[in-house]
């Protein structure tokens, strides 16, 4: 979820509160207020501000994530494609890069203005793989071993959806989900999965980690999750 870390205690508190609101999307506004309350009070973990992070918070749904370096990082593209592929960090760096500068909006309420992201358009990797006609969605896996996210194929092909390698004019650090993360500019930040390790074409959307606890699958900023934030588009 978004950008951050949680302790075992903090995570259990949040999941318990989210479970109360998981009956349906109608509970969205109440769920948001519950999460905001927990993140403002949670002991040492959930929602901690990153040192020098300019307002970003650090979350994770697991106790710890082992960092990966350029030497051991890989990204796979598979599923309903004609050509499965595995990319190293160097492979991705050698591809054409796109830069996007937008506000980052978290579903728990905090916002960081004017954040530059740079990376490879997700559509470029999809085109290289050859998407089969029966594919309508994309599932993203992460090397924390727990987190996942999804987009429809149309959403994934947007020009403002990146496989991001750089953030704030430097390589993406581990705490921000590096060395490679997803960046979905017009959606709440939980859609921008950290520690990206796999891109899988699927026949239908598979709800991501937090969507099993009540978050919206289509997470447009200001038009979902019971929130009225100013869009980041």
Task: Give a description of the structure.
- The protein has five helices and twelve strands.
- It has 233 residues and is α+β, with helices and mostly antiparallel strands.
- The chain has a domain of 147 residues: Oxidoreductase, molybdopterin-binding domain (Sulfite Oxidase, Chain A, domain 2, Alpha-Beta Complex).
- A five-stranded mixed beta sheet has the order 4-3-12-7-8.
- Helix 1 packs antiparallel against helix 2.
- It is globular.
What secondary-structure arrangement, pairings included, does this model have?
Blueprint: H1 8-20, H2 28-41, E1 48-49, E2 57-58, E3 74-79, E4 85-88, H3 89-93, E5 98-105, E6 111-121, H4 122-129, E7 137-142, E8 148-152, H5 153-156, E9 161-167, E10 170-171, E11 181-184, E12 196-202
Parallel strand pairs: 3-12
Antiparallel strand pairs: 1-2, 3-4, 5-6, 6-9, 7-8, 7-12, 9-10, 9-11
Strand order of the largest sheet: 4-3-12-7-8
Query: Looking at CATH, which topology of the domain at 67-213 would you report?
Result: Sulfite Oxidase, Chain A, domain 2
Largest sheet: 5 strands, mixed
Number of helices: 5
Helix and strand content put the structural class at alpha+beta
Name of the level-1 CATH class of the domain at 67-213 = Alpha Beta
> Quick one: overall form?
globular
Written as H for each helix and E for each strand, in order along the chain, the element string is HHEEEEHEEHEEHEEEE
CATH superfamily of the domain at 67-213: Oxidoreductase, molybdopterin-binding domain
Terminal residue distance: 20 Å
Name given to the CATH architecture of the domain at 67-213: Alpha-Beta Complex
- CA radius of gyration: 17 Å
Low-confidence region ranges: 4-46
Name the average pLDDT. Answer: 84
Tally of strands: 12
Percentage of residues in strands: 25-35%
* Helix amount: 10-25%
Keywords: Membrane, Transmembrane, Transmembrane helix
Transmembrane segments: 12-31
Protein name: Molybdopterin-dependent oxidoreductase
InterPro entries: OxRdtase_Mopterin-bd_dom, OxRdtase_Mopterin-bd_sf, TAT_signal
């Amino acid at each position: 979820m978004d950008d951050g870390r949680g302790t075992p205690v903090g995570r259990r508190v949040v999941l318990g509160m989210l479970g109360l609101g998981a009956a349906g999307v109608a509970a969205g506004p109440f769920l948001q207020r519950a999460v905001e309350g927990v993140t403002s009070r949670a002991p040492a973990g959930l929602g901690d501000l990153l040192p020098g992070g300019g307002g970003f918070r650090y979350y994770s749904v697991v106790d710890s994530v082992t960092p990966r370096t350029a030497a051991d990082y890989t990204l796979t593209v598979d599923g309903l494609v004609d050509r499965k592929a595995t990319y190293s960090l160097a492979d991705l760096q050698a591809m054409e890069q796109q830069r996007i500068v937008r506000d980052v909006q978290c579903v728990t309420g905090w916002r960081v203005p004017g954040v530059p992201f740079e990376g490879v358009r997700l559509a470029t990797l999809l085109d290289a793989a050859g998407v089969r006609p029966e594919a309508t969605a994309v599932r993203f896996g992460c090397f924390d071993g727990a987190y996942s996210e999804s987009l429809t194929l149309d959403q994934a092909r947007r020009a403002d959806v990146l496989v991001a390698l750089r953030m704030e004019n430097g390589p993406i650090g581990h705490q921000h989900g590096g060395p490679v993360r997803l960046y979905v500019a017009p959606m709440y930040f939980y859609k921008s999965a950290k520690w990206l390790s796999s891109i899988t074409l699927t026949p239908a959307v598979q709800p991501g980690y937090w969507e099993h606890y009540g978050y919206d699958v289509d997470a447009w900023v200001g038009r979902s999750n019971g929130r009225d934030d100013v869009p980041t588009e």
